[in-house]
Amino acid sequence: MPHDKIDAGDPAGRSDLPAWRTRAQRFETEVGKAVIGQERVIRLLTIALFSRGHVLLEGDVGVGKTTLLRAAARCVGGAYERIEGTIDLMPGDLIYHTYLADDGRPRVEEGPVLRAGENLAIFFFNEINRARPQVHSLLLRLMAERSVSAFNREFRFPHLVVFADRNRVEREETFELPAAARDRFLMEIAINTPADPETRRALAFDTRFHDGDRLIGSLEEGILEYDKLNDVARAIQSEIKTSDALERYVLSLWQAVRNPAEAGIEIDGVDTARLVAAGASPRGLSYLVRAARVAAWLDGRTMAVPEDVRAVFFETMAHRIFFEPAYEMRRETIARQLIDALFETVPVP
Amino acid sequence: MRASLAFLLALAALAPSAAAEVRSVHTIEPRPFGYFLGDMLERTVEIETGPDDEIVQASLPRTGASNYWLELRAIAQSSARQGDGRLHTLKLTYQAFYAPIDPRKQTIPSTEITIRGPNGSETARIPPFTFIMSPLREIFPEKSGETAETFLRPDVAPQPRRSGGLRTGALIAAGLSALFLVLLARDLAWWPFHRRPARPFSRAAREIGHALAKGGADGYRAALLALHRAFDTAAGHRLLAADLDGFLTAHPEHGDTRSLVERFFSASRAVFFGDAQREGETRLPPSELKELAATLARQERAAR
Description:
- The complex is a heterodimer.
- A 5-stranded parallel sheet of chain A has the order 2-5-8-1-9.
- Mean pLDDT of chain A is about 85; it is low at about 1-15.
- Helix content of chain A is about 50%, strand content about 15%.
- Chain A has helices at about 1-5, 15-35, 40-50, 65-75, 90-95, 110-115, 135-145, 180-185, 195-205, 210-215, 230-240, 245-260, 280-300, 305-315, 325-330, 330-345, and strands at about 55-60, 80-85, 95-100, 105-110, 120-125, 145-150, 155, 160-165, 185-190, 275-280, 320-325.
- Chain A is built from 16 helices and 11 strands.
- Chain A is globular and about 70 Å long.
- Chain A has 2 domains: about 10-230, P-loop containing nucleotide triphosphate hydrolases (Rossmann fold), CATH 3.40.50; about 240-345, Magnesium chelatase subunit I, C-Terminal domain (Helicase, Ruva Protein, domain 3), CATH 1.10.8.
- Chain B folds into 2 domains: about 20-135, Immunoglobulins (Immunoglobulin-like, Sandwich), CATH 2.60.40.10; about 185-305.
- Chain B is an alpha+beta fold.
- Chain B is elongated.
- In chain B, a hairpin with a 2-residue loop joins strand 5 and strand 6.
- Residues about 10-20 of chain B have low confidence and may be disordered.
- The interface between A and B is medium-sized, with 18 and 17 residues.
């Protein structure tokens, strides 16, 4: 199971969860200095970090996806590598790069993935949909198993979290992520331009936001110690309780999302009996529960409640639901309607 | 001499009279003959007294059996001013049950009635009344050739009574009662309106009553669930604790119970999602849960 490997870090120590919660709040505040008006996205990102899950950000051009991920990377600490997705990027480019040295002899050096070794905390893949499927499949292994085979041996990255972003404006020269790759992301978070006029004014006129590098550089570094996060995540998963009623609730949500018509869900202009082709994988469900536990912990509770499930459901599940081709083109609106209807229909508790 | 006599007379006139003043007793009697077994006879007694005198109720003859053949059925009493005195009228209704074998004289015995005045009392005597009762039948009917069949008179044919007005009234009243019952049932969401969508809390209040009557942790859980379903129906979607503000904005009629509703959600959270089952019942005891449902039902009815 993939998450066994996620948990394969230091032996479980007693983590001081209340202190870590304060630290998580500090992390949110600090990231919030760089990216304003995105409190919910920052909260989701924090949940993903403490669930040890990978995140795919999606949004228009220039809404701060890259800034957000860079800010988060700085506040998490640890080694940070990034790569830009391009159409000619090949898997090898992630592993090594070759060049002629000053002495005229060819050299082979480790690429961005291997360079930091085990300390790699965040790997940031920019514009992931511009890379070819070959690259996606390497990424698949990196995300699922947190390891890569290269130079005849296996490299392991126990603290690795992959952040990726993707703009949804263009479709030319892009490769849609395969379902298997999308399923390995814990969350797919959509970022929109802030609607609040005051935030918009600040983004446009506040000089602080003009220079991205200085903005990121001004943030406190390494608030979350990247090499402790695995232990904390494990502690959270064992400390936060999920009751029988919550388990039943999550299972009925699952049942309803796979078979919306049977659950009595109706969406305008959609035949719900023929809407969902596949999806909502068991891995997705386990991610959902993990994220819900972290959300409960961040809210200062010792038990997960339906609100926590609802808070993370769209981001953890929507990208795992695959619609029939007739509806796939309208996926964003339909997925939102489906999940809204889901929470309006499935009884709690 | 003459002057002293006049003084004495004046003294005597001024002195208070010793007792009530019964001026006359007059009876108006029915005919004194021609009575059969079971006949009624009504006597009227008029007693003229001083203006402030009145009859002592305890001295009136009691209704019921006076002796083995006579019964006093009713006694009606009235009094009115007459001239400078007062006229008391008593209507005494007797029924005679004597079965004579030949015409025979019977006597209703005399009675004494006490009249109380401002300074004492006096008795008025109602005189006896004598009348003749006759037999109803032959003593030896066999002698005139009668048999048991011919001897017995046929029963009196029943007289139909007009009941049309009463029946119409009863039918109208029954119809109105049924209509009001239907309206009341609709308002309180009784059967068959128990699934009325506009009355989810009325329904929940009833279900909670049943669930709590069962008692135990299961009963309490069922009661919480019933109220959750009512909130869901009222909100039009599944209502979580976090959605409470929105719900109360949309349904201001329940605003007064906010604190209790919040306690309900916190108790439900403890019961269903916490690990302490009992904690819920201490946060919101069953009696308060029942009361909350009743209050919500009342607010719901008042709002529409």
